[in-house]
Amino acid sequence: MKLTFTNQFLFTPLQGMGVTNTSLKGGEWLIKESNAFETFTPEDFNEEQVMVKEMCLQFLQTEVTPIVDRIDKLEPGLMPSLIEKAGEQGLLGASIPEEFGGLGKDFITATLVNEGLGGGFSFSVAVAAHTGIGTLPILYFGTEEQKKKYIPKLASGEWKGSYGLTEPNSGSDALSAKTSAVLSADGKHYILNGQKCWITNGGFADIYTVFAKIDGDKFSCFIVERGMEGFTQGPEEHKMGIKGSSTVQLYFQDCKVPVENLLGEVGKGHIIAFNILNIGRLKLCAATAGASKMALTDTIEYAKTREQFKTAIANFGAIKYKLAESAVRIFACESALYRTGKWIDDKEIALQESGKPFNEALLGAAEEYAIECAILKVHGSELLNYVVDEGVQVHGGNGFSDEYMITRAYRDSRINRIFEGTNEINRLLIVDMMLKRAMKGKLDLMGPAMAVSKELLSIPEFGNEDETPFANEKKTILNLKKSILMVAGAAVQKLMMKLSDEQEILMNVADMAIETFVAESTLLRVIKLSDKNGEAAVQNQIDLMRIYLNDAVDKVNKAGKEAINAFAEGDEQRMMLLGLKRFTKTAPFNSKDARRRIADKLIAENKYCW
Q1: Annotated catalytic residue within 348, 368, 420, 473
Q2: Is the model's pLDDT at 589 over the cut of 70?
Q3: Host domain of residue 216
Q4: How far is the first Cα of the chain from the last one, in angstroms, to the nearest whole number?
């Protein structure tokens, strides 16, 4: 991947970092302080949203979990029947307008459906593909005729959706696809020729969103129906995980697609592909958060019943660490997830009120927060990776046996770091999108970066410590932001156009941004909780936050140090390393006792409980 910024990325006047009382624009959290009391958190779900999530969990418990072995064997007709059952309960149409057979719910509710169904292993993948990339391109980019024809049946589950973008030689570089489309002599059909691979739901879907190049260079999108002349599929792939998810190759040999099945405009297929990915990345984070909660609960239950040395292994400090650390990361991830989800929800409403139709409103809102969606995708997928890995470890030898659910969870989790753009691509995008926003004047990064560089030359001020609640944590977050601005600003100045080739540095900066955004989201949630309930009542949540924040500081320090050492030298290097050290200082904190308190609560509740 190549970044596309230019030397237009210059210094601008310094902006303050005062508390904002409105939703931040995409990326603005880096240069502004958020208001905790206006930050949406999971504790703010309304009664209907809680009910929807519980309905999803109940569906998994009754319809999916008892037959996961049958699902993994790809029993013919089983997955389509489950999708139809989910449709009967309205779980496929949460975000679809009522006029097209959906429930017309808000973005938060739709996100909760993804979380609630996230622990369903291969079923979760199938339903997410159907409701996301299988349905949304038509919903957001289709003509009225296309939407009326396809969306109601997709919302009900009568028809199943799929998505054909990837090819054998085009993965992350999607625009290099070779599948071609040529207008027929009579002008009634596009003739498609080519091949698609790794197509989720491909073995049973009725409707496929397929990308091809018209006249060799106009990247475009088409709605292809099963049964169209010249369209065939390959056998099911044998995969490491998500074995019950249908995955096949698609073949187009003079496939005749009616011209009315062109989706969107000729040559504008990339707009469909990339905009749908923004939403998909956030929804993937929701699914991995849900799966993480289920995997952790499974691990807690096992740790309480497995005895060694005449006691349950849940009583051992080493096991308590693993349980608590999993909970810390889950709590932090969902804090960032629903903070961002509400931003998108608010932006969507604002765009609709300004006259935008519903499809343009949501796409515009998701595009505004594309940086945060990329952050969430990386963090959520790596969260689940950690939880299931430690879950296998707690299970010991039994964790290597197919008799235990954690084994399936471990195998199935791995794909999430590849889905929706690899985590490497998403890390690069985080920095690339921030720089592009700065170039367009939408985000002033270099003004604050200039202020931080001047601060490095000054002597730190010492005075009375701020004793207001969470003052030290707020200062820590502010300093983490300064460290990002210092490193990113210096890298841009030093490397300019060469920065696009320094992917290691870009990924260092992305890691700094990910940890800072998630840590701040967690702090804002705890401040809001503490104000409402009192610190004593939310001691566990305070522990969760402080553990995550302290670890985030160390991770930012490491990533920042690697970046600085990669492009700076001499006095500049020494000054920046001293500045990084100053910005990543924390007060002593007994994380061992905090983790034990968290683990004891998990063990008492027998589940993830926040």
Answers
A1: 420
A2: yes
A3: 163-268
A4: 39
